């Protein structure tokens, strides 16, 4: 029987959504509330040209809290995917956690292993898409983002800092004041 070598793993650029892709106005779920963070399109285009898979990893406790339904979330997510595609940015995957440990009701109220800072979404994406986590980057804007990347074994942890006076950059993370600076560091 012929031996089929496994497909080589790609590195991923994991991106938090709110505050990294779209400006965080709080539980954004409508097209009209969406403003892209300056520099996100250039960063994504550059990463993809360098061979990175683009993967969004987002906590969506607004679903557990009943601020919007999972259907609303998926409709918005589809719109955002198309909006980025209209700028030439093709996402390889979008992973979301609809849960909250102690808010909301029904199936969404539970301790899960996907809500950041847990590493579940990153691990699932890595399995689905064939990603090499030590060669990957996690770009987030909170301590919880950085912790999830660290726990999943992502090699480079990047933190976008929009308010330096109020932000403590976790040990092991590299801080960037804007996405152009992050893009310039890509290799
Ligand atoms: Mg965020
Ligand atoms: Zn979850």
Describe it.
By secondary structure, this protein is α/β, with parallel strands linked by helices. It has a single domain (24-163), classed as HAD superfamily/HAD-like (Rossmann fold, 3-Layer(aba) Sandwich), CATH 3.40.50.1000. Helices cover 31% and strands 15% of the residues. It has six helices and six strands. The chain has a six-stranded parallel beta sheet with strand order 3-2-1-4-5-6. The radius of gyration is 16 Å and the shape is globular. The mean pLDDT is 95. The structure holds magnesium ion and zinc ion (ZN). Zinc ion (ZN) binds at residues 97, 99, 112, 114-115.
Outline:
By secondary structure, the protein is of the alpha/beta class.
What is the fold's blueprint, element by element?
Blueprint (H helix, E strand, L loop, with lengths): L11 E4 L24 H10 L3 E7 L1 H4 L5 H17 L6 E5 L22 H10 L7 E4 L2 H10 L3 E5 L13 E3 L2 H7 L2
Parallel strand pairs: 1-2, 1-4, 2-3, 4-5, 5-6
Helix pairs in contact: 1-6
The biggest beta sheet is recorded as: 6 strands, parallel
The CA-CA distance between the termini, in Å, is: 39 Å
Strand order of the largest sheet: 3-2-1-4-5-6
The oligomeric status of these chains comes to: single chain
Please state roughly what percent of the residues sit in beta strands, choosing from under 5%, 5-15%, 15-25%, 25-35%, 35-45% or over 45%. 5-15%
> How much is the average pLDDT?
95
**Poorly predicted ranges (pLDDT <50, ≥5 residues)?**
none
Number of DSSP helical runs: 6
CATH topology: Rossmann fold
Indicate the CATH architecture.
3-Layer(aba) Sandwich
């Amino acid at each position: 029987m012929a031996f089929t070598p496994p497909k080589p793993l790609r590195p991923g650029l994991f991106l938090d959504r709110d505050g990294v892709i779209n400006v965080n106005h709080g539980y954004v779920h409508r097209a009209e509330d969406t403003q892209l963070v300056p520099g996100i399109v250039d960063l994504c285009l550059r990463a993809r040209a360098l061979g990175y898979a683009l993967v969004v990893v987002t906590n969506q406790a607004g679903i557990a809290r009943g601020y919007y339904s999972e259907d609303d979330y998926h409709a918005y997510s589809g719109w955002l995917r198309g909006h980025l595609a209209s700028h030439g940015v093709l996402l390889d995957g979008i992973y979301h956690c609809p849960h909250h440990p102690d808010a909301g009701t029904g199936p969404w109220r539970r301790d899960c292993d996907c809500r950041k800072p847990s590493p579940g979404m990153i691990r699932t994406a890595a399995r689905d898409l064939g990603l090499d986590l030590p060669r990957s980057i996690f770009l987030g804007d909170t301590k919880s983002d950085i912790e999830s990347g660290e726990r999943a074994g992502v090699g480079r942890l990047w933190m976008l800092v929009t308010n330096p006076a109020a932000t403590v950059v976790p040990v092991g993370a590299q801080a960037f004041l804007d996405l152009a600076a992050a893009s310039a560091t890509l290799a």
